[in-house]
Structure formats: structure tokens, C-alpha cells
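lol ok so funny story. i was supposed to be doing the assay writeup but got distracted and ended up predicting the structure for this chain instead. priorities right. anyway since i did it might as well share w the group, maybe its usefull for someone
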Amino acid sequence: MAGILSNLRSTIIFSVILAILMYVLYYLVAGGSYSGMAVATAFLRWTHVVSGIMWIGLLWYFNFVQIPNMVNIPDEQKPAIGKVIAPAALFWFRWGAAFTLLTGLLLAGHRGYLLETLSLGAMEGFANGQHVFLGVGMWLGIIMAFNVWFIIWPKQKIALGLIDAPSAAKAPAGRTAMLFSRTNTLLSLPMLVSMAGAQTLFG
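and the output, tada:
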């Protein structure tokens, strides 16, 4: 077991194997009665949730841990954050956002309500509350993913010196990235209420 846990890749591979075995267990407990549609839905929902945990987990890491504590880190140690930790975290952060959005749209399309939710229920005369609330959550997620890819990441590249830019541009870029990251933090809880509430309160 120590060999598995000592290597992150081995840990993740073993975790995926256990997850697959859980799906097999579900199938066996149900007496082999799951349809291909149900299996595909479960898989898409799982990938959507996993991607979302990566994305929102790192969003909260930045806002609850890294940003508030940067002022407490001695100046000589800050390059370790800016050159090593932050770029790696931003990689998983932005791709977590992309895959959360992609799998969410695929899931809605697979379930047959993509246009209904994107229209915030307008296509059904706002009669389906689940589609209205899912749509609100989807649009909040789209706005947040847009902020990640088109504002936060470009500004962070400047702030962290990952691309050539005037030194005077770094501080303003960092502040803009922080404010939009904070905006996403503000939107994250209502987005999660919209998504989880639509699945449970209207389920």
C-alpha cells in the first residue's frame, strides 16, 4: 500500500479502479438491470462532479489559503509560490473549469434538456422549475469559466511573470486576477445551490 500511496499517479490509478469497481457493485446490486443510458448518465455526472471538485477546490484554495497568506510569507520565499506552486495550481484550476463546463453541457445534452436549461426554462414557459434552476447554475458556471480563461489566467500570466510584460503591469494584473477570482468565489455558492437544489428539491 505504501508503494501505491508514495506515487500520485499510482494513487489516482488505484482510485479510478476502485471507482470502476463501485460502478460494477451498483450494477450487481441492481441485478444487472441498468440501461446503457443510465450508465452513461452516471459516468457523465461523475466526471462533472470530479472536475467541479478540482475547479472549485482550487478556487477556494486560492481565496481562503494562498491570497490571504501571501502577506505573511517572507519576500525571499515568495518566488517559490509564484514560480512553482501557483502555475501548477493554475493549470489544474483552468482545466478543471473547462472540463466542468464541458461535462455539464454534455450531461445536459445527454439528458435532453440542454436548450431548455440554457434558455432558463423560457422554451417551456418557465413551467419546469428544475430546468430554470439548472439553467441559472449553468449560466453562473459559464460566467465563472469565462472569467477563469479570459481574465484570471491571462492576468495571472502577467502577474507571475510567465510572459513578457512591463514590471509596472504586474501589480495591476495581479489585482484584477484577484478581484475576478473573488467574483467567482462569490458566485460559487449560489451556483452550487442552483445545481444541487435542482437535482434534489425538484428530483
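The two ends are 40 Å apart (CA to CA). The chain has two domains: 1-34, 37-200.
back to the writeup now i swear
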